[in-house]
Fold MFS transporter.
Amino acid sequence: METRHGHADGAKHHKGKLDSQSIILLLVHGLFSIANALSGTFVNVYIWKAKSDFALIGWFALIQQLTMAITFWVAGKWVKEHNKMNSLRAGIALSAVFYLMVLWLGQGAVTYIWLLGIVQGMASGCFWLAFNVVYFEVTDPDNRDQFNGWAGIIGSSSGILTPWLSGYFIAKMGDSGGYRFIFSLSLVIFFVGVIVSFFLKKRKVSGTYYWIQAIKDLRRKNNPWRLVVPALSAQGIREGVFGFIIGLLVYIATKKELQLGNFTLITSAVAFVSFLLLGRWLKRRYRGPAMLLGTVMMSAVILPLFWKLNYFTLLIFGIGTALFMPLYTIPMTSSVFDLIGGNAETAQARVEYIVLRELALCGGRVVGTLVFIIVVSQTTSPFIMNILLLCIGSAPIATWILMRGCLAPRKG
């Protein structure tokens, strides 16, 4: 039986320390992040160069998000009742298939946006569902902030050099050769990620997957998930749009992939330091104030874009976001997973609750992206775009308001 700490395999864990399985999981996460950072940063630019259409980019993101949500829900049965490690590997393999398809389709990829979006959505759904379940099982409330800090460090580290190298190779080798090279390199790294995943232990499965867990919990009065779900959706609103638009705006402002690589290098370096410090120093009792500061500052750094939308103001925004985002994401992620591991009943239903978490995030992403598509289909004036970014980028403030009760330290 699982405890409130979230371990399901009966293994011994040293309080506050990461064990070997946690470290291997972080390594898999790192390889997945590096492969995506190499090519993922430039996929939307690749599509934009074929057809400069904000709405098309939005539809590509929307198809991914809808497919990812469906994959989370359906794959939940596979992860809970069968081999969750195969879901993790399937996610990595499908990511490789995505980049293989982009290589094969070339400039014709823009015609098959819907198919590419479906494959990418399935890849993300399979990988992140299994990753989050295993993450829950190998961590506890005493080391969850530390794990999230290291995950942030690895993610930002992968963004320091890899996108810059991608931009450099594209600039030196030209569009055709450069994109072909970085997409091929991503394929190799994904393959290595699959190999490393076999060092993760095959984890025990128990119970039957409950398809309508979300409906059951949201109908129950005083259930904390009635506040957590809309809080996660508010988080997803920002993620859904900012995940693709910022890099694209940097490219549009500079017309150079190398400048986008420079932007990612600088902002990832700042995020690296921020995650490194907070992963060590942030304690559970400081989650509430930290998250409040993070949400306010993440909104404030959007304001320079109203002065002028250029590389300099985008860089101010990027550095500010990289600096303050960890104050928001570490408490948010840790608090939700602590809630899942709060007692034996919720820990037993960890797969269903992680699916519920992901569906809430995807719901927010879909809403944010739909709003983006509707607005850019009418106008792409800089002022309206900035208003749109400010409104969408401020959504995490609602997350903090709704999550205040869960962020408070437990007594006793």
User: Anything to note?
Assistant: Residues 1-6, 8-14 have pLDDT under 50 and may be disordered. Residues 20-204+213-407 form a domain with the Growth Hormone; Chain: A; fold (CATH 1.20.1250.20).
